[in-house]
Specification:
Layout lengths: L16 E2 L21 E7 L17 E7 L12 H9 L7 E5 L10 H22 L9
């Protein structure tokens, strides 16, 4: 039986990055081959003016519009995301000039196992709960 230190890691997101620059977010570990899983958490945010470039993103902030997890952070939200259309309609930001994304650095969890997968599912719901507790509702694009 595998014995892991199951301490809950700090959910400190990288700084917000403009949607059009999202490909700059992912720097996979050296031992990560194309096509392999690189799971993670990410948040989408709406800002009328650019957030401070070096401050970590905070999932419970009012600017957060979506909190999600992915099996491969290099594919989603980096390549595409189905929430783009909902975002554009809700905020009338068709050019996505005010849409930002931030990811949680999972390098410490790269050896993906069942406990880590379970933690990601838990952490996504925990972050949504923290947002809802603070603002009285889920993030606007977290519809379920």
């Amino acid at each position: 039986m595998l014995s892991l230190p199951l301490e809950e890691p700090e959910l400190k997101f990288r700084p917000w990055v403009l949607w059009s620059n999202r490909s700059d977010l992912v720097d996979p570990p050296d031992d990560c081959e194309d096509g392999s899983d690189y799971p993670g958490l990410y948040i989408l945010g709406h800002f009328k003016s650019a957030p401070h470039p070096s401050s970590p993103a905070i999932a419970s902030g009012k600017q957060t519009v979506y909190i999600g997890q992915t099996k491969n952070i290099r594919n989603r939200p980096i390549r595409c995301h189905n929430k783009r259309t909902l975002y554009s309609e809700k905020y009338a930001d068709w050019s996505l000039r005010h849409l930002y994304v931030a990811i949680w650095d999972i390098a410490q969890w790269f050896d993906v196992s069942e406990p880590q997968k379970a933690f990601l599912a838990y952490a996504e719901k925990k972050l949504i709960w923290e947002y809802a507790r603070r603002w009285g509702c889920r993030p606007p694009l977290n519809l379920r």
